[in-house]
Specification:
single chain, 228 residues, Rossmann fold, globular, binds S-adenosylmethionine, Probable caffeoyl-CoA O-methyltransferase 2-like, S-adenosyl-L-methionine
């Protein structure tokens, strides 16, 4: 049986969920610039549900600090919420490679990035993310990234994971978003391309003994894989 969908809805859409409300009210500390970016995205973009959950971005900021991270990649930028959030957690000489194909979304993102003093940390690559990841590997950057967030076209999750594993340093973390997919992954009647691809990537990571893993019921589900 599919779990109640509301459990997996993002915090900004799940205000009818008292437990999630409590969690948000007692733990979310959203910097003003991120709040502004999120609220403007929600009033400007019909597809605002693509936004990462703010409590999830906050959790990633802690991970980045724990990892003493300098180099990160965002696969799927949308309006730049998590890219900006990660930049805030990186040191001044840190770098986020931001991968997306949407000019309209990233133009919006760039307006916010340039409003803050983190703009120099962001390197936007406006082309298919697989092309960007392959170019980083070809440029000799394998084994050098601390944190890679995968949140783009779900059909490519396994392709992104393979490249991200190559680019990651030992002890670095890959985080994959939407691994619960509103509960669809647990419903065998759901056989559409995206659900099937998400399940396949989840299974692939579960059996990958080269990483330590944890699947979190945060946002719409996040798989963490730490390179051994
Ligand atoms: C769920 S949104 C990302 C949300 C974002 N991580 C955030 O912080 O709010 C997915 C994004 O992936 C992008 N995308 C889809 N296919 C892509 C591809 N082949 N390469 C790069 N980006 C892609 C979309 O344009 C969209 O902006």
């Amino acid at each position: 049986m599919r779990p109640p969908v509301s459990v997996f809805k993002k915090s900004f859409m799940a205000m009818d969920n008292p437990i999630l409300n409590y969690v948000i009210d007692h733990s979310l500390r959203e910097p003003a610039i991120l709040k502004d970016l999120r609220e403007t995205t929600m009033s400007t973009f019909r597809e605002y549900e693509l936004l990462i959950a703010p409590e999830q971005a906050q959790f990633f900021r802690i991970l980045l600090k724990m990892l003493d991270a300098k180099k990160a990649i965002e696969v799927g930028v949308f309006t730049g919420y998590n890219t900006l959030s990660m930049s805030l957690a990186l040191p001044d000489d840190g770098k986020v490679i931001a991968c997306d194909v949407c000019e309209k979304c990233t133009n919006f993102a760039e307006q916010y990035w340039s409003k803050s003093d983190i703009n120099h940390k962001i390197d936007l690559r406006l082309q298919p993310a697989l092309k960007t990841l392959d170019s980083l590997i070809e440029a000799g950057e394998s084994g050098t990234y601390d944190f890679i967030f995968i949140d783009a076209d779900k059909e490519n999750n396994s392709n992104y994971y393979d490249r991200a594993y190559t680019l990651l340093r030992k002890g670095g973390i890959i985080a994959i978003d939407n691994v619960i997919w509103g509960g669809k992954v647990a419903d065998e009647m759901e056989t559409d391309i995206k659900t099937t691809a998400i399940r396949a990537c989840n299974d692939n990571i579960y059996s990958d003994q080269n990483v330590d893993i944890s699947m979190l019921t945060l946002g719409d589900g996040v798989m963490l894989a730490m390179k051994k």
